[in-house]
Amino acid sequence: MNYDVVVSGAGPAGSRCAEILARNGFNVALIERDINWRKPCGGGLSTRVMSKYYPQIRKLNPVSKKGAFMFSADFHKIEYNWEDYGEDSVVMDRLELDNLMRDIAVEAGAELFDKNTSFDFIIKNQKKIGVKTKTKSGIKEYLGKIIVIADGMSSKLAVRSGLRERWKIENIGLAKCSIIEGKTDFDETKSYIYFRPYKGYGWVFPIDNNQINIGCGTFEEDNLNYNLNEIYDDFINNPNIK
Ligand SMILES: Cc1cc2nc3c(=O)[nH]c(=O)nc-3n(C[C@H](O)[C@H](O)[C@H](O)COP(=O)(O)OP(=O)(O)OC[C@H]3O[C@@H](n4cnc5c(N)ncnc54)[C@H](O)[C@@H]3O)c2cc1C
């Protein structure tokens, strides 16, 4: 399969890149490992960005956030309102957001290839001329004059290209989160951010009055000093977080 551009990774960067190229007449292959995977993410989006690049999100009627509560590790609280600054933000289900961006890229003319995991380049005369992917039915090859690596921090291609090495665990952040359904006392117009007694933080981002995105994580050396599953269980069961 021959393309002008092969984009590996249909997250926000890859989908937007594919959309713009396709709109400008380029023949684009957009390769994605799994369109059903929900990336761990708070899903917070500024309405300025949303209105400029993805006005289609408005149709989903997301709830505007007018401010945030921030908590120290011993749960002292400050409130920060940004309403007066003329700015606000929304919280989206990240899977819904990613798939909306992918759909817009496809509508613009990009071809989306799901369940394709990029793992290496096709090389001819010492030039990278395409991308090899693993699929259930075997290895597939996508030829492209330009290759865009947008497949995130676990990218195999970024490492194979020599652009960077594999990240070491103490140089990254680790996080675990869920979307929980049901009524809570969290104000849907606010975000809740919790500093923790380790290098890391937790959050509760209400999506609406029936769903919250709740999660926490560590970074740098505390990735090694703390067990993510244990701190997540401790966080979501903490009586101060309600
Ligand atoms: C815990 C957490 C919370 C966050 N909260 C927010 C927030 O509230 N607001 C905000 O703006 N940002 C937030 N971010 C940051 C945001 O998630 C990233 O900036 C954004 O996802 C980067 O987009 P991307 O397209 O570069 O990469 P990604 O979103 O990582 O997309 C990469 C894509 O490539 C695919 N892929 C991976 N490997 C392969 C492969 N080998 N072959 C094919 N496809 C592959 C993946 O499935 C994915 O679809 C958060 C990040 C984390 C980790």
UniProtKB/TrEMBL annotation:
InterPro entries: FAD/NAD-bd_sf (IPR036188), Geranylgeranyl_reductase (IPR050407), GGR_cat (IPR054715). GO terms for molecular function: FAD binding. Pfam families: FAD_oxidored (PF12831), GGR_cat (PF22578). Residues 185-238 form the Digeranylgeranylglycerophospholipid reductase catalytic domain. Signal peptide: none annotated. PANTHER family: CONDITIONED MEDIUM FACTOR RECEPTOR 1, GERANYLGERANYL DIPHOSPHATE REDUCTASE. This is Digeranylgeranylglycerophospholipid reductase catalytic domain-containing protein. It comes from marine sediment metagenome. The lineage of its organism: unclassified sequences, metagenomes, ecological metagenomes.
